[in-house]
Write a structure and sequence with these properties.
Blueprint: H1 12-15, H2 18-36, E1 40-41, H3 42-50, H4 52-60, E2 68-69, H5 70-90, H6 97-109, E3 116-117, H7 124-136, E4 144-153, E5 162-171, E6 176-184, H8 193-205, E7 208-217, E8 223-228, H9 234-249, H10 267-272
Parallel strand pairs: 1-5, 2-3, 6-7
Antiparallel strand pairs: 4-5, 5-6, 7-8
Helix pairs in contact: 2-5, 3-4, 5-6, 5-7, 6-7
Length: about 270
Amino acid sequence: MPAGRRCHGRSPEHEAGIRGHRLAEDAGAGVIAAATGTHLSFSQLRTFVECPRKWHYEKVEQAEPERVPASLAFGSAVHAACAAVNEAAMNGETVNAGNVFDCAWEPYTAADATPLALGDDDEAAALAEKGRALVSIYKPPAGIVAVEQHVEVEIAPDLPPLVGYIDLLYQTADGLVVADVKTSGTRVLSDVEMLAAQLAVYGRAFPVVRSEAIVLFKGKVPAQTIQGVQPWPENRLRTWATEVHAAMQAGVRFAHRSRNCRTCQFRDRCAAE
């Protein structure tokens, strides 16, 4: 980011994105949990389930990534913009979401940045344009009471506390609602399993009456959809988290081969093993 550049009057660090800071904090939490077992972030549970070997490279070894998936950079920048909009709305202010997106996106495309792993039909400039269009249509709900709210919950005596950050909490006439912002190639999410688990964690921290996804559709005509999500039952969350954590501690690190391998941060190293 160029020196002195500012978005909506905040520091360059803040402008780079609330969610970008969240990613860095979760990575640190993963390393701490792997080394000492003091706490466990939901993001590392999800990463381990997606690919144990990737989790090992990232959280245990803290290996330098070979590339950054464009989808990760795009989602991070969109979330930063939406978080800024939510925070402004909570404080009775306004913010230029496109400017915040640019501030969060720019570090990924800088000359000295880790290379972006683009999809077959993707170009960095086109993705930036799509991101600005997407955040421009985002409408925050009324009654926001918390943005990027840190949570720490205990779900089992033999499991470290689970930590994470709630995208959004807002108050309705019926009670408190927890929401997670998602970008998607469809108007409705077809796979909500991990989101349902994540929202179950959040529901343990606050007395929410409803859990939902705010889906931002990345089509030619961007759109916003509110999708209700049923959180996992407490016993299912406890069993799943305990089993995943046990696999982590046992040193499980097989590679899960999938379509995500092509843009994985550690593709070259993994292929050589």
